[in-house]
Write a structure and sequence with these properties.
By secondary structure, the protein is an all-beta fold. Helix content is about 0%, strand content about 55%.
Length: about 110
């Protein structure tokens, strides 16, 4: 069965902030479109500042993308659990998001 997921390069620069702390900045984001969901930007690991992140025990599974791992963001004395996730070993159909992560738009701001 086809998931209907498409992944394309995002054409504009992206900065992700937690409060005023920049946690990611890239010109190489990918936009994942999945039917029935809002678009999600996936940012290359190389453009994420992992000093502000700590992996949590949380994991979920998507039949179209595989198993997701989650990270807590910390900055300016605040933290947000499971604010970033990644499919570290994605299903082959979405292999483009390997070594990329997405951020929860309810917990960070995008510029």
């Amino acid at each position: 069965m086809d998931s209907g997921i498409t992944i394309t390069p995002y054409t504009r620069p992206v900065t992700v902030r937690f409060h005023s702390v920049v946690v990611a900045s890239t010109e190489r984001a990918l936009e994942l479109l999945e039917p029935g969901h809002d678009p999600v930007l996936y940012i290359p690991f190389d453009d994420i500042y992992f000093a502000h992140l700590e992996k949590t025990e949380t994991s979920t599974t998507c039949p179209w993308k595989g198993a997701a791992s989650y990270w807590r963001i910390t900055g300016q004395g605040e933290s947000a659990n499971d604010a970033m996730w990644a499919y570290e070993d994605p299903i082959p159909d979405v292999a483009a998001i390997r070594d990329h992560a997405a951020f929860d738009p309810k917990k960070v701001t995008f510029e």
